[in-house]
Automatic annotation (TrEMBL):
This is NADPH-dependent 2,4-dienoyl-CoA reductase, sulfur reductase. GO terms for cellular component: cytoplasm. It comes from Actinoplanes derwentensis. Keywords: FAD, Flavoprotein, Oxidoreductase. Its cofactor is FAD.
Length: 464
């Protein structure tokens, strides 16, 4: 199938999948991206069979509250469900929960599963997310599923000595909750400044000071060699005793089951700007048919969405894989629409959005902060931990982050980012005189020198 290339407004499209009627669409992954994909297919009028395959036992539930309201016991687990049973039933799904997809045959358009029969498809959406990285040694807590959160919550009793490995957003949120529950927390981070790779060194420093103020033993520049029955052992041989250990050091995209399928698997499933998977043959530089993800060329009738998808975002001109809740839903919708209307596909060009709650701090961010050249405080002050920062890359405004500000404070900046505003156009227009303070970015975002990243500790992970 031929897809539009950038700059070609109305290219002809001839698609093997669009020629054949779509009767059965399979979605692998029953979570935030998968459920929105299914809803979009129905909303757009798809009358055929939608098969949804999910490894977990539960219908789709929300993960951000796991490290917040669930860990703190403010919520019961039944509040996590993303849809009511009635809404879910209304989608009329051929639902296979507790079922793992084990292989994909793109030639014959079949998904194989661990237990049941092979499932044929006319088109496929993959939304299998990520799973936590682990450390060698004794089993430790991780935080990805509701069971993980409930298991950890049970152990967070007052006086419990908790070691958290990784001071990304996930580790920071769990640390804040554990302190509020009366635990003694040691937070270990390999980088000199937590979150510097994600939000800049000065802002990372300000955010991490909150831990020390709340009595956390934050140790930076340390790396953990192994988890033991007594706690953890650092690379220099030091041991830290703990009752519980939480490992929050990043994630792996769930793509192992796609080995040999012909998809391009490079830190996620490589997709074009329409969220359509790009065949491996076309990304092999030695292949005469090698394609850039910007162009997208051949239809495998396979789309990807959410944490597992690495797609080309023309707004920023790079491929990116985003582990954010809002992106999962938006991309589930985009993938489903583009799958149904291949002749009228729309590039998926979101401004990534992320939020985090730590102690009394509400953090919100829009855009593409990684590898920025400059960060500027345009409202409030770092010292008060109430500020709005904007990020520059070359001559573009690429991101904005607010701490302790109402969400509406960020909206104009989101608009500027969405319209690809230049730095010089956007920043002077919006900054009140005297409010702007440039903060140095030395030592900030370097993908190579940074620590392993936790599921939500990068605003984007990208490669150009
Ligand atoms: C503790 C925690 C806190 C978070 N907090 C925030 C936050 O504050 N803000 C924010 O923006 N984002 C946050 N996130 C990230 C957000 O939850 C994710 O971006 C979102 O859940 C991604 O949705 P998804 O559908 O792509 O993947 P997932 O939610 O990971 O779902 C993938 C599903 O696919 C299933 N699966 C995997 N492999 C297979 C297979 N082979 N066969 C069948 N099923 C399979 C998995 O079991 C899983 O159910 C947080 C995540 C966690 C874990």
């Amino acid at each position: 199938m031929t897809r539009p290339t950038p700059g070609d407004p109305s290219p002809p499209r001839c698609s093997s999948s669009s020629a054949a009627p779509l009767e059965r669409i399979v979605i692998v992954g029953a979570s935030a991206a998968g459920i929105v994909a299914a809803e979009t297919l129905r909303r757009e009028g798809f009358p055929g069979v939608i098969t949804m395959i999910g490894e977990e036992t539960s219908p789709p539930y929300d993960r951000p509250p796991l490290s917040k309201q669930i860990l703190s016991s403010d919520w019961d687990a039944d509040r996590l469900l993303l849809r009511t049973p009635e809404q879910f039933a209304g989608l009329d799904l051929d639902l296979h929960l507790s079922t793992r997809a084990t292989a994909l045959d793109t030639q014959n358009r079949v998904v194989r599963t661990a237990a049941g029969p092979a499932l044929g498809y006319d088109a496929l959406i993959i939304a299998t997310g990520v799973r936590p990285r682990k450390l060698p040694g004794h089993p430790a807590h991780v935080l990805r599923t509701v069971d993980d959160a409930l298991r950890l919550r049970e152990r967070l009793i007052p006086g419990c000595r908790l070691v958290v490995v990784g001071a990304g957003f996930l580790g920071a949120e769990a640390t804040a909750v554990a302190r509020s529950l009366g635990c003694e927390v040691t937070l270990l981070e390999p980088a000199p400044v937590p979150l510097a790779h994600a939000v800049s060194e000065p802002i990372g420093r300000i955010l991490s000071e909150a831990h020390r103020e709340h009595g956390v033993d934050l140790r930076t520049g340390v790396s953990v060699a192994a988890v033991t029955a007594q706690g953890v052992t650092l690379s220099d041989g030091t041991t830290i005793e703990a009752d519980e250990v939480l490992v929050a050091i990043g994630s792996h995209p769930n793509t192992e089951w796609l080995q040999g399928s012909g998809l391009t698997l490079t830190d996620g499933i490589l997709c074009d700007q329409y969220c359509a998977a790009i065949p491996a043959a076309l990304t092999d530089p030695a292949s005469p048919a090698a394609a850039s993800p910007a162009g997208g060329v051949v239809d495998l009738a396979v789309y990807a969405a959410g944490d597992v998808a690495r797609w080309y975002n023309p707004l920023f001109g790079v491929t990116m894989r985003i582990e954010h809740r809002t992106n999962a839903a938006e991309q589930g919708m985009a993938a489903a629409r583009n799958l149904l209307h291949p002749g009228a596909g729309k590039p998926f060009t979101p401004v990534p959005y992320f939020w985090s709650d730590q102690y009394d701090m509400k953090i919100h961010a829009y855009g593409y902060l990684r590898d920025h050249d400059q960060v500027e405080i345009v409202d409030g002050s770092l010292a008060d931990r109430r500020f709005l920062a904007v990020y520059r890359k070359n001559d573009r405004l690429v991101g904005a982050l607010a701490v302790g500000m109402p969400p509406k404070a960020l909206r104009p900046w989101r608009q500027h980012i969405a319209s690809a505003a230049t730095w010089t156009d956007a920043v002077p227009m919006s900054v009140s005189p005297g409010a702007s303070t440039s903060v140095p970015v030395s030592g900030s975002p370097t993908a190579s020198s940074g620590p392993p990243v936790s599921p939500v500790d990068t605003l984007v992970k990208e490669s150009s």
